[in-house]
Amino acid sequence: MKAGYRTVIGAALCMTIGLTGCSSTGNFGGANFLYKNYTVADGSAVAGEGRSVLFERKPLALSGTGIKVGDSLREANLTQADLSPINITDTKGKGKVRIISVVPSLDTPVCEEQTHYLSEKNKGLDKMVELVTVSVDTPFAQKRFAKEAHIGNVTFLSDYKDAEFGKAYGLFIKGPHILARTVMVIDANNTVRYLQITPELTQLPDLDKAFAVAKSLITAS
After folding, report:
1. Average pLDDT, the chain
2. What total of structural domains would you count in the chain?
3. Residue ranges of the chain with pLDDT lower than 50?
């Protein structure tokens, strides 16, 4: 696919994944964030080569080796805010329960709401688990987003270089170079215990269910 065509597709997705445009609406920090009534996805797509997700009912092919519940967390390098590399298996929550939220781009309203919800509606889980957001936004963009959104309890990691994370988990959408919208819960032994890939990119994942799974893992331990 030619670079120019890829850019056009990426721009179109950016304008409509969040339904209202690419610019961040995140000047409403913390409890003042203005939540919208976005649809929460029912069910999950399947990760990996040969699978797809929908964008406004049009299929977009996934690339990479698909992850599923019961699999171990796979090694994949991401970039931190200070531009240093870190493996997803070795984040600060290693050895504890982790919730990994994957978004196509933080600068779209649905992705923004997903990230605010993770940060603000987790019912105190952020004191016990690590909350992680992964996107292909640059570390600079992620840092700016976190500052404007007043989010300090989420670890932001960037897959902007080679989409190594997206490919390792079968969540990479090659054409527009974005990641499929996903939430996964990882237990203390680095095993995937819950996974939802939204079948339609414009819909939110069921974060409340992810929170419930994470809480049950903490209670069981």
Report:
1. 89
2. 1
3. 1-12, 15-29
CATH number at residue 174: 3.40.30.10
Domain that holds residue 107: 3-22+42-220
The pLDDT of residue 220 is 86
Beta strands in 64-211 (DSSP E): 77-79, 85-87, 98-102, 130-135, 154-158, 172-173, 178-179, 182-186, 192-197
Q: What is the pLDDT of residue 32?
A: 83
Q: Is residue 28 part of a domain?
A: no
User: Is 209 among the domain residues?
Assistant: yes
Q: Does some domain include residue 29?
A: no
CA–CA distance, 115 with 110 (Å, rounded to integer)? 9
Using the Cα atoms of residue 195, residue 106, residue 4 and residue 201 in order, give the sign of their dihedral.
positive
Residue 128: per-residue pLDDT: 96
Torsion of CA 58, 118, 195, 69, to 10 degrees: 160
- Catalytic annotation present for 111: yes
In a domain, 167, yes or no: yes
pLDDT of residue 31: 57
Find the catalytic residue in 111, 136, 168, 173.
Answer: 111
200 to 22, 71, 193: CA distances (angstroms): 18, 24, 22
Exposure string of 54-84, with b = 16+ CB inside 10 Å and e = fewer, is ebeeeebebbbebbeeebebbebbbbbeeee
Output the pLDDT for position 15. 44
